[in-house]
Design goal:
Oligomer: single chain
CATH topology of the largest domain: FAD/NAD(P)-binding domain
Number of helices: 10
CATH class of the largest domain: Alpha Beta
Strand order of the largest sheet: 7-8-6-16-17-18-15-19
Strand content: 25-35%
Structural class: alpha/beta
Shape: globular
CATH architecture of the largest domain: 3-Layer(bba) Sandwich
C-alpha cells in the first residue's frame, strides 16, 4: 500500500457542504484535499436551491441557524465569485406561501416575518394561481441560488484556484486511529490502487452516505424526485412554496419542481411513475396552466436526514474528526453558516457567545443518550 506523507486536511465528500468548507478553509491558508466517490450524486447538484428559512416555516434554533446563514450568503457568494470568476446565480426573488384560509395563514410558524396577501394580491403576484388559494404570505427576504447549474461549478473552480486538491472516484476504506485521535485514512483510488493518507484532521460531509464512514452517525437517506419545466420568460417571478410541492423559477424561465419525500426508498435509485404523478399533481394544485409547459429534465437525489431533521455540525468524539452533515432539506441555505462556524472551530478562531450557543444545538453528541439506550436492547 502506498503512503502519502503530505498530511492535508481531508474533506470526505465533494458535495455543496464539502466544497463550501474546502473554500472557507483554503481562504484561511489550510492545505485541503477533497476525497469524493462521485460529486455528481451530491445533494447540491439535485436540490432546488431555495434560501427560505421563513417560507419553510422553520422554528427554534434551526430557524436561527437559517436566518444567520441567509445574512451571510451575499458576502459568501461574493467570495466564491471573486475566487472563481463565475456567477453563482443568487436572486432575492421572494417566496410566496399560499393558504386556503385566513386561519391557516395566522397559524403558520413564521407568519410574523411575512407580508399578508389576500386573493387579489395573490393573483397580481402569481397570475394563474389555483382558485382554492384565498390568501398568502410573501417572504421578500427569502430567495434562491442556481445551485445545479452555477453555484456548484463556481465552487469547484474557486477551490481549484485556491489550491485545493481533488481525488474523484475514491472509496474511503477506513479511518485509521489509535482509539482517541485520527492518524490517517485508507482509500481505494478510481484506478483500484490502495493508498494510505496520513492526516490528523478530516471532515465528514458525505451527505446521506456519512453513516457508512462512521457508524455512530445517525444519518439516513430520504429520497426525493424532481423535475423542471420551461415556462414563458417571466411567467413566474416568485418561488411558490405549497404543501408538498414548490416551484422555483430561474431567470431564463426554467422552473424547478420539487420534491417527493420517500424515506422508505433507502438508496433505491431511479424515477418512479408514482413520484412523477405526485409532482404533476402538485403543479396542478398550485398553477394548473404550468402542467402544459414542456418538461425539460427529471432527476432524483438523497437528502441526508437525522432523527430530529437538524444537521450535525462540530467535533466528533474522535479527536481530529469533524462532522458537517445531516442538513436534510436545507443544505443550500445552511452551507454558508456551516462553513463559517466549522472553519472557525478548525482554525481555532474564537467564536462569540451567540455562535457557541447556536452550535450547541447541532452537536454530534445530542444523540448519544438515544444511542446508548438503543445498544442496551
Amino acid at each position: 500500500m502506498k503512503v502519502s506523507s503530505q498530511n492535508p486536511l481531508l474533506i470526505l465528500g465533494g458535495g455543496l457542504i464539502g466544497l463550501s468548507l474546502a473554500h472557507a478553509l483554503a481562504l484561511k491558508g489550510k492545505k485541503v484535499e477533497v476525497l469524493s466517490r462521485n460529486r455528481n450524486e451530491a445533494a447540491g447538484f439535485v436540490a432546488a436551491g431555495m434560501l427560505a428559512p421563513h417560507a419553510e416555516g422553520l422554528q427554534g434554533k434551526i430557524l436561527e441557524l437559517g436566518q444567520q446563514s441567509l445574512n451571510l450568503i451575499p458576502n459568501w457568494v461574493k467570495q466564491i465569485e471573486t475566487s472563481s470568476g463565475m456567477s453563482c446565480g443568487l436572486r432575492q426573488c421572494g417566496v410566496l406561501v399560499p393558504f386556503t384560509s385566513e386561519h391557516q395563514l395566522n397559524e403558520y410558524p413564521t407568519a410574523c416575518f411575512g407580508k399578508k396577501l389576500n386573493r387579489s394580491d395573490l393573483e397580481k403576484e402569481t397570475p394563474g394561481i389555483a382558485e382554492h388559494w384565498k390568501s398568502g404570505l410573501l417572504f421578500e427576504q427569502d430567495g434562491q441560488i442556481d445551485n445545479r447549474r452555477q453555484l456548484m461549478r463556481a465552487l469547484e473552480k474557486a477551490c481549484v484556484e485556491l489550491g485545493v486538491k481533488f481525488q474523484e472516484g475514491v472509496r474511503v476504506l477506513k479511518l485509521v486511529h489509535n482509539g482517541s485521535y485520527l492518524e490517517g485514512i485508507n482509500i481505494q483510488s478510481a484506478e483500484g490502487e490502495e493508498l494510505y493518507i496520513k492526516s490528523r484532521q478530516a471532515i465528514i460531509c458525505s451527505g446521506a452516505w456519512s453513516n457508512q464512514l462512521l457508524k455512530d452517525l445517525t444519518i439516513y437517506p430520504v429520497k426525493g424526485q424532481m423535475m423542471s419545466i420551461q415556462g414563458p420568460r417571466n411567467s413566474l417571478k416568485r418561488i411558490i412554496f405549497g404543501p408538498g410541492t414548490y416551484l422555483v423559477p430561474r431567470e431564463d424561465g426554467l422552473i424547478v419542481i420539487g420534491a417527493t419525500s420517500e424515506p422508505e426508498a433507502g438508496f433505491r435509485e431511479g424515477l418512479t411513475p408514482f413520484g412523477q404523478r405526485q409532482l404533476k399533481a402538485g403543479i396542478h394544485n398550485l398553477i394548473p396552466i404550468a402542467n402544459s409547459w414542456p418538461t425539460m429534465e427529471r432527476w432524483w437525489g438523497f437528502r441526508p436526514c437525522t432523527p430530529d431533521e437538524k444537521p450535525i455540525i462540530g467535533a466528533h468524539s474522535l479527536e481530529g474528526v469533524w462532522i458537517a452533515t445531516g442538513h436534510y432539506r436545507n443544505g443550500v441555505l445552511l452551507a454558508a453558516i456551516t462553513a463559517h462556524l466549522l472553519s472557525k472551530c478548525i482554525c481555532k478562531e474564537k467564536l462569540d457567545d451567540y455562535e457557541n450557543d447556536l452550535l450547541l444545538s447541532f452537536t454530534f453528541n445530542r444523540f448519544a443518550e438515544k444511542l446508548i439506550m438503543t445498544h442496551q436492547y
